[in-house]
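Sample A.
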Amino acid sequence: MHSPERDNLASLKSMKDEALQGGGRKRIEVQHSKGKLTARERIELLLDEGSFEEFDLLKTGRSSSGDGGGEYPGDGVITGHGTIDGREIFVFSQDFTIMGGSLGEAHSHKINKIMDHAVRVGSPIIGLNDSGGARIQEGVDSLAAYGEIFSRNVMASGVVPQISCIMGPCAGGAVYSPAMTDFTFMVEDSSYMFVTGPNVVKTVTHQDITADELGGAQVHNEKSGVAHFAFPNDILCLREVRRLINYLPSNNKQTAPFLDLRDPIERTDPALDYLIPANPNQTYDMKILITSILDGAEFLEYQENFARNIICGFGRLGGQTIGLIANQPAVSAMLLTFLSFAWWTYLDSCPVLNRSTAVSSGTAPNCSMPL
């Protein structure tokens, strides 16, 4: 006998199956051919297995059929929450196979929703960015949608950790939000951050420049300092995001996770007896000292290739997370440059994110204050 309820359930299942396919098999194959994972594959790698709960799977925007291919449930972004090593995380992942991951009104509503929930419950926010920018079919509404996200970036700053992963193009309005978050990860050879692309630059300045030279991972990790980490592929990038989360508290009212690595307090390292040379004009590598004193010799360095005469990062002492700042004698004879003063920003973030300690090592020869 014909059952309307059964028909409704079958229709709902069909819509969910369609949403899980993203932009379709052909576009997924193109994504893989570029060495990139899909939006769902990234979430599966980032979060604990089976922990992801999705929001608004079937939500569509006013122009989600913009290229004539019919409506796309989800509107080009996957949002929800899950866990990393058992700790609650809110995440959004832009789907480049659907209208190039462009941001429209419904797209932004989904991101705003998980950001609001994250602040309300006190959990980190992770954004996996792979977007061509604003959706021009929606006109000024798509630009206004960016403003809603930026406002939430500001309100969440210092309340919960915000992490951005640039895993594809991040152009136009899409690039401002990651610059306001606490940590930015980039993938080499496939991720770019710029307000306007190479073609616009050439039109205005008559200068030929590639996407990598304008806003690639190397530029932002070595010169601009906008990004903090760079990795060769999506898998390694997401693995390091999981590692970083383990050093951070969930919000500014909690302490960072305690992890006992069973490193004996009385442990000694004979190599330190020979680290500092007898000749004060000779340099040495401060990282040897850092890894020696930290629990398990584990050190997560922050902006490793930017202002290399200063070392910033996270480690543990007695199982407790610490933020560490040190001069690096092996680079520029430990002189402080204007770029190296970016560590003040890092130091300010330690109490804001409720990290336990900020440790400094060494004294700058051209600066009267002890570090």
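Sample B.
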Amino acid sequence: MHRQLNFRGRVNDVGFHLIQEWHSQKQPIAEIARRLGIARSTVRSHIQSDTPPSQRAKPQPPGVSPAKIAEMSRRRQIVKHAASAKQVIKRHAKRSTRVYVRKLYPSTNAISRYLRTHGYNVSPSTVRRDLIVMGVRARRRRTVPYLNPHMKAERVRQCRDMLNGNTLRFDKNKLLFSDEKRFDSDDHSHVFDWVAEGVPTLPRQHDTNSSKIMVWGVIGVNYRHLVVLKAGSIDAARYQSECLQPAIGALRAPGVIFMQDNARPHSSESTRRYLKRRHVVTLQWPPYSPDLNPIENLWAYLTQRVSAAAPFGTEALAAAIVQEWNMIPQAYIDALVVF
């Protein structure tokens, strides 16, 4: 019993040599076709040919001359070059220089305009087809903050210290993490609507005039503190009087290290002097790294709880925030802090 192969209708060089060998052994065409899983007409065509498939000249599309194919190939090379062309932008600030990398031609429209300077008057849809033929795909770009090599090294160092519990820098049980969070009474999470058969659901509409409240919180092992801030922007003076002052007793306790991000009210000179006069030890935090702060996980959890309560109005929103904050188990907060 011969082992049956399956070339799925297409024969490569291996199949071609098998056909030639079996035909020289006087095997029937029907048997060769059955063993390779191809049609008998395909077997006959390969028997009549003396050249393997890889060495045969590919048939040209009807109506396309070799000159036009060469022109298309040159155009596609220009399209591929334009799609990958980048430019480096340097922006000088007071303390550092930021380097950004941008695409010179970020869209098919831009590539189409670039091709016109080379004598090719093609549409963006043609550019899109050329890119797909060459294996280039449009993928969604990630939105990330600017991080230079020094910032990345600081983030890695901070992560290692927090995971390993570096006692040379801090003790996890003595860390206090802080951050602000803005809540609103808009309908964010109610995707489904319980309605009877035949009754339409309410549309999801973004309420730009919904009630908004800013809060500031601090969490640590066996500690939590929440401040509901009044309306208005938060500057260094308000940050010191409304946020830091009510919690100053816990912030300057022996061995406690206070974490705050690098927002302007936090890193201002007046805030630094304020904390230094009160002997508050702060943790140096890498820039553009809110994702490393464990209180962000608490904010996400609290946002879900507040949204599920569906408060309407500023007073109801503030009451829901405070109520849900107090209902969070302390063990959950401790697990976030000690990782």
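B remarks: Residues 66-133 form one domain. The chain has three domains: 13-55, 66-133, 149-193+206-338.
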